[in-house]
Design brief:
Mean pLDDT: 80
Radius of gyration: 21 Å
Number of strands: 4
Shape: globular
Largest sheet: 2 strands, antiparallel
Strand content: under 5%
Length: about 290
């Protein structure tokens, strides 16, 4: 619960900054605040997806904070509420992580025109899907219940453990590796999509290819800094969600895992909100010269 508290403080900070720099200036028409990175970023489609990802972390953090109550009461209470919050946060986090990756890939790799209302449709679909999947097991007795140090899908339903808890993380991890690898290779000039797929390993050939686009050339300074952020966001998701996924797979196969390993898995999951806020503000730092250029 300590790491959930740290994530809660980080999320509270970004909420405060967003209200002060995005919501209030929209009513006051404060020109200086409207130039803040948060204001400019959250007005973009990428910012809409990022805001939804942050909101999904709120559900995970709220579930983690419930563990303080369990410590105080020396036992697990209201386990179904915890499980529902976790599953909403789990599915929403997975969905919007992919949405951010796909949007970034469409913008930087394929240079596709982004329809203005598309983000609204995608976000609505993501939240409806997350709520339906998380709430559906509540109507079935015994699906949600105590599982070692927390609550989730019980061992009596192994297929649901895999389908609800493990499968989305495994699928999204694979998709993110593919998507961000493609972005990395294209931004580095190693892979070219325009005019057919082509690999270029010689540095001179890579630079000759990228200079064909004047827009790409102007964006290269920001891109050079963004590459590390792109890979870090992918690595953060995979590394922080891998322990809990392995724990769920162990439950799915009927194996018992050590108490310490289960605690570590939940701690990693609780840290995701804190790490996400840090990555988001690193994105603000990297893109700030672009916004004010």
């Amino acid at each position: 619960p300590v790491f959930a508290l740290l994530s809660a403080l980080a999320l509270a900070f970004i909420t405060y900054r967003s209200i002060r720099l995005v919501v209030i200036p929209s009513f006051q028409r404060d020109g200086s605040a409207c130039r803040a990175p948060e204001n400019l970023f959250f007005r973009t489609q990428l910012g809409h997806y990022a805001a939804s990802l942050v909101l999904s972390n709120v559900f995970l953090t709220a579930a983690g904070l419930m563990e303080f109550l369990w410590v105080k009461q020396s036992g697990i209470h209201q386990g179904s509420v915890f499980a529902v919050l976790m599953q909403i946060g789990n599915w929403a986090t997975c969905f919007f992580s992919v949405a951010i990756g796909v949007h970034t890939c469409n913008s930087l790799v394929f240079r596709l025109y982004q329809i203005s209302y598309l983000s609204v449709v995608v976000i609505a679909f993501g939240w409806v899907m997350s709520l339906v999947i998380a709430l559906a097991p509540v109507s079935q007795a015994g699906v949600y219940g105590p599982v070692t140090v927390s609550c989730g899908v019980t061992a009596a339903h192994p297929s649901k453990i895999f389908g609800i808890e493990a499968f989305p993380v495994i699928l999204v991890s694979l998709l993110l590796v593919i998507i961000y690898s493609l972005i990395f290779l294209v931004l580095r000039g190693i892979l070219h999509i325009k005019g057919g797929i082509k690999l270029t390993f010689k540095a001179q050939g890579r630079w000759c290819a990228v200079t064909d686009s004047e827009e790409y050339h102007r964006f290269m300074v920001a891109v050079a800094k963004t590459i590390s952020s792109v890979l870090t966001s992918c690595l953060a998701f995979v590394s922080l969600w891998l322990p809990i996924t392995l724990a769920n797979m162990a439950h799915f196969s009927g194996r018992n895992i050590p108490f310490g390993a289960d605690v570590f898995a939940h701690v990693s999951c609780s840290m995701f909100g804190l790490v996400n806020v840090g990555l988001l503000y690193n994105t603000f730092r990297v893109l700030s010269p672009v916004f004010h250029g």
